[in-house]
Amino acid sequence: MRFVxxxxxxxxxxxxxxxxxxxxxxxxxxxxxxVGSRNLGTLNLKPNELKMVQQxxxxxxxxxxxxxxxxxxxxxxxxxxxxxxxxxxxxEKTAAKDYFDKASKESGMQKFDVDVGGKKVSYxxxxxxxxxxxxxKAADKVKVDYEGRLPSGTVFDxxxxxxxxxxxxxxxxxxxxxxxxxxxxxxxxxELVCPSDVAYGDHGHPPTIPGGATLIFTVELKSITEAGx
Length: 229
Prior knowledge:
Blueprint: H1 2-14, H2 23-40, H3 47-61, H4 74-103, E1 110-116, E2 119-129, E3 141-149, E4 155-158, H5 159-162, E5 166-169, H6 175-180, E6 189-194, E7 215-226
Antiparallel strand pairs: 1-2, 2-6, 3-4, 3-5, 3-7, 6-7
Helix pairs in contact: 1-2, 1-3
């Protein structure tokens, strides 16, 4: 399977921009795209850097002798990947701060602070449609409908699209949800604006959520399905 993945990615890098037509071509493109987005997407490779990746893939897939010792380069690979991921996360956080600051001035928006590893982090909360039921506690299990999107407007997850509410323990999700949903009452629809420190952090959730991303959720609290112990 590893050889298939490398070969598929090699094909996707070497080929000209073409639309896959046969089922095999579509499968190869899909494998290449998924491997590229999940394993290379956070590196933000420039065209000349991508060519170097292509050369290494080609040499390895064709059984040629490596021009450098790949095993000896191992520690440097981790340093390279971390540096690129950190830089991308900082860029994302800088852009997201503008969105957060603007959203915090919206009518009805509330700001709440939460402790994360000894650091105060703020998230935003706004009631869209009031509810009149009970509010859950952190240990409770709840049923919700929701949509999650990036500041760009891109939807990365939606129970509405799946046609089925989600059910989970409030202490089993991101910090922003654990804290924010406790402010809701059954029947309420609210918006949560969650900076990365109370969401998926600098690592994100590739390929849909970049590292450092602020997330915006629309949440409807349907019910408290199980009281925590």
